[in-house]
Design goal:
The complex is a heterodimer of chains A (125) and B (386).
Chain A: E1 4-8, H1 12-24, E2 28-32, H2 35-45, E3 49-52, H3 61-71, E4 76-81, H4 90-94, E5 100-103, H5 108-119
Parallel strand pairs in A: 1-2, 1-3, 3-4, 4-5
Helix pairs in contact in A: 2-3
Chain B: H1 3-71, H2 74-97, H3 102-130, H4 134-143, H5 147-269, E1 274-279, E2 284-287, H6 289-295, H7 299-302, E3 311-313, H8 327-334, E4 338-346, E5 352-364, E6 367-376
Antiparallel strand pairs in B: 1-2, 1-6, 3-4, 4-5, 5-6
Helix pairs in contact in B: 1-2, 1-3, 1-5, 2-3, 3-4, 3-5
The chains are: A alpha/beta (125), B alpha+beta (386).
Amino acid sequence: MKKHILIVDDEADIRDLLAQFLAASGYRVTAVASAMEALRIGKQESPDLVISDLQLEDRDGLEMIAELKEAHPEQLVILLTGVLFDPDVVDSVLSAKVACYLEKTSSLAQILEAVNHLLGPPAAS
Amino acid sequence: MKDKTIGRVLLYFLVISAILIASAIQAVRNINRSAESSDWVNHTHSVILEVEALHAALYVGDGALHTYALTGDTRDQAACSEAFSDATEHLEITRALTRNEPAEHAQVLELESLVNQRTAFYQAVLTARQVGDAEKVRALLATDAGRAALLDIRQKINRLKNDELALLTEHDTASYLQAQATRWTVWLGVVLDVLLLAGVAWLLRDDLAARRRAAVAMQVDNQQLEIRVRERTAELAAANARLSTENLERQWANKALEHQLHYHQLIVDSIEDLVFVLTKGLRISRVSPAVVHLTGLEPKALINQPLSRVVRLLAAHPAANAPMIDPIAQALKDGHELLDQAATVEDKHGRKTAVRFTLFPLRDGDKVVGGIVALRVSPAPGETTT
């Protein structure tokens, strides 16, 4: 059975490109634009991984992740954002909240590598 | 089936048919000959029987004649007449039977002459006896060759019989040979046909085997072709997937870059200070919205213009006639900052606004590639000129 990934990003192009790439890589992907929609799906379906932007239109991404983790403490989350954190402190600041931090300037191959690292290789179709 | 095989099979069947027809014709011809031979044998046996009957009738008639000559009994006369009548009848039949056989017919004619002599003798004796001329009867009987004549007839009948029997033997031999020839013909035809049919079967089997081999070879070729097609399809699918991934990567990189540029623009635009980005030649490459707001000049009127077009540092104590060294160019050249310097900004109407000037060299590694100028509108008393 394919692993389920929830993508949360208010930029449609970014969201669609990432969803298309991860689906082609063998994952079941659900892509939403808002934190509210992400919380609804995250709580109902408990996806294997959430990839979220930091700045969402309706809410701060880290707040949304915190609420999601209240329902599912073991929820794996990748924070994928264009907001550049200081690399020297990003681990200490974000490691308690997310499993992985990636900049949007990361390549898709790097993103897939991080996903595979967290979920293992996708199931053969 | 190959055309060559079809031709061979047809040829074989033609030969088989020819042999069958030839055998049938030969067999029918031999059967006809056998039928004819059977007729001839019957005919020959009839001749033999007739001459045997003739001989017997002559003996009976001759005996009856002598008895009648002695007794004068009419019954003996009747028996004699009947016997000679039978003999005449058998002779006529024999003559008729041999009329188409010259050699036998000649012998029958000789026999007929002797029989006629005996018949004439019989008539003479009978006549003499009827009239009661005993002397003449005695004289006739005394001069009669009698047994010798009958023996002569007997010899001729035997010769004719032996000739007929010899012919029968010849016919038997011929019939036997003919039957043998028929048997050989039929069996030879059967054997040849069986051999030819075996040849046809071998041809068909060979052709079927060739077709099976061709089918197997074609199947192997098809399988290899399918394998190659599958491999090629897999290669194309992999190449397509790789291209799709590369395309997604490019699109992602473009979007990420756009996002970052937009983010940086937001950062710059959100600063209240007037920000100028300079090239090493002190030309403006980028301005913040605050610059546009204060100067009333659109970015396109500012970009690529020298900074001195709108910003001027105010020298604290300029020496008279001292050579003018641009402190901004010097700071960029030396790679150090200029902090909180007094300066003015001129708007599009020529009005000047006092600002505090700060310059940060823009470094790329060890090299200074430009500068950032930040102006804060907070004029100190007496530093604003109009």
